[in-house]
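Schema walkthrough. Field components (list of strings):
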Amino acid sequence: MFTQLLAYHFVHNALWAGAVVAIVSGAIGVFVVARGMSFAVHAISELGFTGAAGALVLGLDPVIGILGGSLLVGLVLGLLSLRGRERDSAIGAVLAFGLGFGVLFISLYQGYATEALNLLFGSIVAVSDTQLRNLAIVGAVVLLGLAVLYRPLFFSSVDPEIAAARGVPIRALSVAIFLLLALTTAEAIQIVGVLLVLTLVITPAAAAQRLTGRPALALLLSVAIALVSTEGGILLSLEKSWPTSFFIATISFAFYAAARFYDWNRSRQRRLISSPPRRTWAVR
Amino acid sequence: MSVVKVDDLALRFGDRTLFEGLGFELERGELLAVLGPNGTGKTSLVRILLGLLQPSAGSVVVDGCPPHESCHRIGYVPQQRIFDRDVVLRGRDLVRLGLDGHRWGFGRFHSEDRVRVDAALAEVGAEAYADAPIGRLSGGEQQRLRVAQALVADPVLILADEPLLSLDLAHQRGVVDLLDARRESAGTPVVFVTHDINPVLHTVDRVLYLAPEHWAIGSPDEVLTSATLSRLYGTDVDVLNVRGRIVVVGTPDDQHVHHVENGH
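Field assembly_structure (string):
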């Protein structure tokens, strides 16, 4: 059955689209996880949904709406450049406000309900040649942006205080990463849907973080995990005709669980080897 | 030749004046300790020197140019802030960021850079744990790596802002000795902000004491006296020397400079 399906053009398009989105999501995920931006990813993707719903009401291409919605939120959150609890609550407030509009737009939309459902849960099988080309262009922009910003972005993500002292433009980088994240999210929505963007942007990077302490290797591992999850998910959904997003989310979570187990097991063994003999006298 | 020139510096937030008329010069090879209670502008002074904060008045020149133009390298050792356990970063990577983290792109890691990173790691004695994830190291080990990060770019000036906070005595001495060694070998001046003079007392050249209203600068023998501090605070303050350790008693908030019990 696989070999038959692999002859179809739409299958090729789906696999290529999946590859583009996986590479971009896996790469940016490393920075997103280092900066603790998971909640922001979720907010950006849900407001991408609002944008898409708005576009549907106006009779526009929903992809335009996704891009508009996520870029707007990305810009706002990046400019606010918040940290810690304040960021958490601000994102929550913005997210809820935007989703309210999403609900309104969907109720106003007179078209097919499947269109809205596809937005939420993804639909990879119907990627046209034009869509694939657009995905590749946006993906190339994000990768280029990450490559140019790599060192200062990494510096400001893991060690913001010293980075600022060394003259790294913290605020500008915050805006930049949010905009790149918005582009990535807009891409991922088209593959896995609004509700499952995290499965490509967060889960692979979170798994990679558990496997290595080397920044460059973590980036490669994250991209690899995202790729295997996406392509594996697409192939399995062709075989079994269950939703693609389900398979992608399950495979990437399996990597995450395995990585956590690996990490736990490794530190347990290290403890067993290096635990010093118990002292019987007071040290202090 | 003076590396730092601070002239008639003032810092105000609203109608609150932290300091004004502050002036001093720092020569090569000098170690200046900045002392004083909380809220008198010690950290703000560091941020001004780093170019992160604009003073209300006055001028600062570091190695011939104003700090905000960041045309020079300042090695900065911050208060200890423990890294996340899971952060993807090795000690070696942290030190490398001090060398080229502010440059664009991926950057090729030239062998000369690797040599410099290795040398900085060796200078602080961190070779053994340089390749371990930094979040899993002890606070003292992390702080040593911070010192290596500050030293790796051959800074013209070292700014250390409470670098000993929450370190045990052995690691406190370790960090002070590392900064002192670089000062000896390369003549790099050090500004050392601390609430407790004793860990650096043996190596300090001059003390800048920032009190709520006034400030004083001079050798420890001049500044850390009952007369000077009483004048700064406008009340009777006693400076005692207890077995080589300086203890200040009677400041209005009476908790800052004196640290009789050390290491908790």
